Amino acid sequence: MLKQLVYRSQSISNVNETCLDKITSDSLPFNERYNITGVLLFDGEYFFQVIEGESEHVDVLFERIKIDRRHNNVMKVTEIIVPKRDFGDWHLRALPVSEESSCYWLPPDLSLNRESRIFALLNSFASGKWRTCLSDEARKRLRVNLNTPDMTVAPYRDSSIQFAFQPIVDTSRARISSIEALIRSDDGRFPEDIISSFKGQEKYKFDLETKAIAIHQGAALITPDQSLSINLCPGAITHLPNVGEYLHGLVVQSGLKAQQLVIEVTEAELISESGAFHDAIEKIRSYGIRIAIDDFGAGYAGLSLLADFSPDKIKLDRKITTGVHENGHRQAITEAVLEFANSMGIPLVVEGVETLEEWLWLQHAGVQRFQGYLFARPKLNGLNGIKFSV
Ligand code: C2E
Ligand code: MN
Ligand code: MN
Description:
TIM Barrel; binds ligand C2E; single chain; binds manganese (II) ion; five-stranded mixed sheet; Alpha-Beta Plaits; alpha/beta
């Protein structure tokens, strides 16, 4: 099968036309031997290359390209199976791109279908896209120093249920903006198993009532300018009466303000909910308690959910952002969600940030709040300290 793969990378040193010629001539033997064709755009800093050929040859070549020391920040923009080649018998052609390049900058002997993805992608690069990555200078200027202590709270008395807490950090302000309470049982079951060992109304009651523990413990871990997130199944919100009043009571008892409590509901579970859910949410909000969409992007409702139900916070699922620094699809989706969140004034949290590279890309794209093992793992009856400095 024929495959087209597009990647973007950043040159290490000053690449002039001679270097570009050298890159081309170095690549030709392999490309001719395996009948790889394509085009290499270069704007003085970034490369944007399309390679096409038999699928397995393209994969082998991409592995070689990734370890080439003349560039870094290699990011796969996309790969698609195509019925025929777009670049004919050009085993590699290098095209310089400048600021003046417009839609009509492609050489006249290249007749790309104007409806094709490749045509659109080449133009998007020429018009300035796909450059969200840190230059070495910008990286050197970056200063984040986040240092927070380990904290513990007393286990909730006589309870087989306890909570683990994980911080959500605002790296642009070098502070913990909130903490999330995650349910734990003394027999070590996963949260889903703990909750789903109850059925129907019992499940909802259990979920809601255990939040007394989460709020009691969480209140001891946060300062007045931080908030506490708890998770609830949407069913609990719809099918139990007076959820807002109950939670508000707990919050006041623990010495918190209502505004400090955030209820997280997952996107996947929200879909089945109806008008009754929306009414219940309005009541909860009238107390000042806020609502977040959890695991956004992992469910099926997608953007229509945002159109119908305006949350106070969006938590982007880690399925979207894992490896975001090297994946064009994930980058495009993250940027779109961030843009929506910014336009609507809704804070966005990115979940599951595990590597420095993911964080670097995300913060450069404009994300401010992060949750993930890179900063701290959840800690039972407490909060792990953070030592993060770049
Ligand atoms: P969640 O609300 O999305 O919570 C984040 C989950 O991701 C937690 O798993 C946390 O340990 C994990 N996590 C955090 N950072 C990273 C990371 O960098 N990499 C990876 N791979 N994982 C990370 P946990 O504690 O197992 O909870 C799983 C889910 O169970 C939660 O997902 C939440 O939806 C649900 N849950 C937890 N507590 C409750 C609760 O009290 N009630 C209800 N209804 N659901 C709960
Ligand atoms: Mn959550
Ligand atoms: Mn989540």
